[in-house]
Amino acid sequence: MFRSLILLGALCLAPLAAHASDSDERFVALYEREWQWRLREYPQLATAVGVHEYDHLLGHVDIKHQKARLGWLRNFRKQLARLDTDKLSATHLVDHAIYVAQIDNAIASIELGAYLLPMTSDSSFYADLTMLPDSHPRATEADYRHYLQRLEGIPAYFEEHIALLEQGLKTGMTLPRVVLAGREAPIRAIAEHRDVLSGPFYAPFIAMPPSIPPATAEALRGEAQRIIRTLVQPAYARLLTFFVERYQAGARTTIAAYALPQGEAYYRQQIREFTTLDLTPEEIHRIGLDEVARIRAEMDQVMRDAKFDGDFAGFLRFLRSDPQFYAKTPRELLMHASYIAKHIDGLLPKYFSMLPRLPYGVAPVPAAIAPYYTSGRYNPAPEGGKGAGFYWVNTWKLDARPLYALPALTLHEAVPGHHLQGALASEQGGQPPFRRYSYISAFGEGWALYAEHLGVEMGVYENPYEHFGRLTYEMWRAARLVVDTGMHAKGWTRDQALALLRDNTALSEHEISTEVDRYISWPGQALSYKLGELKIRELRARAEQQLGEHFDLRAFHDAVLALGSVPLPVLEQHIDRFIAARRPTTP
Question: Terminus-to-terminus CA distance in the chain, angstroms?
Answer without folding.
Answer: 55
